[in-house]
Automatic annotation (TrEMBL):
A GO cellular-component term linked to this record: SNARE complex
Species for this entry: Amphiprion ocellaris
Name of encoding gene: SNX4
Superkingdom, natural source: Eukaryota
Protein name: PX domain-containing protein
InterPro entries documented for this protein: AH/BAR_dom_sf (IPR027267), PX_dom (IPR001683), PX_dom_sf (IPR036871), PX_SNX4 (IPR034902), SNX4 (IPR034783)
């Protein structure tokens, strides 16, 4: 019943006009800017800030075009927002942030955090993060998110006042280190090598044409085709990088998905520990009430060594145990409800995530396949043109 009611609630939220922040507000990360300043230990540092622009959607719909509200945020502030969302909504697969440092880079791309191309890719990734959060039926209605988008000053204080850090389980944090591939397959390197071989063909044909009289024109034309094909590799790899970023986003999503599952395992563990503690206390109460003590238990051994307890002591212990058992039963009930609610809510959000993942990955892989087909057709065309040049000689 609880699951059904929650499902209905989320479905109503998703279809209701204006249910998500993205329906009410236009959001974009317009630009990035390099700045210098002093860090927490008064040392000079260089960092990048990102301009977030927001505009009410009703003004856009009415044809008005008011100036957007804007503010600057550092990457660390995006991290703080995401950490808050993870702790506050443990049952939700929170969208990932783009990588802070380039982990997987092709050798022609810079791994420098301040490299303009890398900063631009990260800007796009941060905008995508905000759009995904703002379109989520639950996350988009969080007040802290709204503060992040609209209040430039005092935002961090508002976040810390929620006390979310105290709720973050240290055992969960210890498990959250992301594993990485040690020796990734360098497909881009091999592809780059193939194209550069064509560049060598072009150079050889051009130099050869200079010493040939009858075949000179044909060789030079073939060389031009090879040069053009070799030069196209940069555009192709740039397009591949775009699809790789989409796949890397879902690599990070896998970690977010694991975090939801780990939170459930932790809640289940706490429930089992509370249940075992309650069973143990009930057993102690039974032994005190009946006077029958197991010989090899701790209580049995102390009775053998020091003798039986006085009736007054037994009554006091019984009273204390009754209070502890009552508290234990309440704890077990709370933990049971917590586990059930986490499973129900997580199941709903995982279904939403699955639909989003299927749609995004299908689109990315189809576009990648289309690009590969286009690339192969271009290769066939280049060699067909070269063949015609050779036949004319």
């Amino acid at each position: 019943k609880g699951l059904l009611s929650y499902c209905c609630l989320v479905l109503v939220q998703m279809v209701e006009e204006g249910s998500t922040l993205l329906r009410r507000m236009e959001i974009c990360v317009a630009e990035a800017e390099k700045r210098s300043g002093k860090n927490a230990v008064s040392m000079q540092e260089t960092f990048t800030v990102y301009l977030i622009e927001t505009r009410p959607m009703d003004a856009v719909a009415e044809g008005r075009n008011p100036a957007p509200d804007s503010l600057w945020r550092r990457y660390s502030e995006f991290e703080l927002l995401r950490n808050y969302l993870i702790v506050t909504y443990p049952y939700i697969v929170v969208p990932p942030l783009p990588e802070k440092r380039a982990e997987f880079v092709w050798h022609k791309l810079s791994a420098d955090n301040m490299d303009p191309d890398f900063v631009e890719r990260r800007r796009v990734g941060l905008e995508n993060f905000l759009l995904r959060v703002a379109s989520h039926p639950v996350l988009s209605n969080d007040k802290i998110l709204y503060h992040f988008l609209t209040e430039e000053h005092g935002w961090k204080e508002v976040v810390y006042e929620t006390g979310f850090q105290a709720k973050a389980d240290s055992r969960l944090r210890a498990l959250s280190a992301t594993f990485r591939v040690r020796n990734p397959d360098k497909v881009a390197d091999r592809l780059y090598g193939v194209y550069k071989v064509h560049g060598n063909y072009g150079r050889v044909f051009s130099e050869w044409s200079a010493i040939e009289k009858e075949m000179g024109d044909g060789l030079q034309s073939a060389g031009h085709h090879m040069d053009a094909y070799a030069a196209s590799i940069d555009d192709i790899l740039e397009e591949e990088e775009h699809y790789a970023d989409q796949l890397k986003e879902y690599l990070s999503y896998a970690e977010a998905l694991r975090a939801v599952c780990r939170k459930h395992e932790l809640a289940q563990f706490e429930l089992e520990m509370a249940s075992q503690d309650l069973i143990s206390k009930k057993q102690q109460r039974e032994e005190l009430a009946t006077g029958i003590v197991r010989t090899f238990s701790f209580k049995g051994m102390t009775n053998k060594l020091f003798g039986q307890e006085a009736p007054e002591q037994r009554e006091a212990k019984l009273k204390l145990l009754e209070e502890l058992i009552t508290e234990g039963e309440e704890t077990v009930k709370e933990k049971t409800v917590e586990c059930e609610e986490h499973v129900e809510r997580a199941w709903v959000d995982m279904q939403r995530f699955k639909e989003q993942k299927d749609k995004d990955l299908r689109e990315a892989l189809i576009n990648y396949a289309v690009m590969q087909i286009s690339m192969c057709k271009k290769g066939i065309q280049v060699w067909s043109n070269a063949k015609e040049c050779f036949l004319k000689m």
